[in-house]
Design goal:
Strands 1, 2, 3, 6, 7, 8, 9, 10, 11, 12, 13 and 14 form a twelve-stranded antiparallel β-sheet that branches. The longest helix has 14 residues, at 2-15. The protein has helices spanning 2-15, 176-182, and strands spanning 21-25, 36-41, 46-47, 51-52, 55-59, 67-69, 83-87, 91-93, 97-104, 110-116, 121-125, 130-139, 147-154, 163-174. It is mostly beta strands. It is built from two helices and 14 strands, in the order αββββββββββββββα. It starts with a helix and ends with a helix.
Amino acid sequence: MRQALLLLIILAATTGLAPAAPITFDFEDGTLQGWTVVEGSFGMLVCDRELFHHQTELPYNNQGTYFLSTLETPDYAPSDHYTGIVESPVVRLEGETVQLLVGGGSGDSTYVGLFDLAGRELARATGADTQEMKPITWTVPEAVGELVLLRVVDQATGSWGHLTIDDVRLEGIVDEQATEAYR
C-alpha cells in the first residue's frame, strides 16, 4: 500500500499532475475558478442573484450562492446583449460522467459544451427557455483519458439569449500546463 502511494506521488511529481480526483466548478468563492473569457465581454459573469428576474418569488435552483451567468449586469439588471465565449481550465478527464446545472436559452447559439483540444464537440446542453437551472448529465466514455474543456457559448442577443451554469462536477485532473498552452 505504501509503495502504491509512493508511486502515485512520484508520478504526480514527474508529470506535474496530481492524482485524479473529483473536480467541482461551483463558483462559490465568487470567482471564475480558472475559467476565462476568450471572446466577447459580459457584465457580471459570476452572479449571486437569488430569485428570477421578473418573477421575484422563484429561486434559480443554483447550488450555493454563486453561479456563472451571461445575463447579469453589474447593477443586477438583465441584459441579453452580452455575447462571447467562456472556457474552463483544461482537464484530463478520468471519469466518464460530467454533471452540471444549466438554465437560460435553448437556441443553437447559446449552449455549454464539452470539447476536446482539437475543437471536437463531445457533448452539448442548452437551457429550456427558463431561468430555472436543470440538472444535466453527460456520459462520455470515449473522452476518458483525454484533455477536455467546457465552453459556454452565448452568441444570441434576442429573447433568451443567455445561459446560466453551476455545480459542474467531473472526475479528472486540472492540467495547468495544457491550459496555458491552449490559451
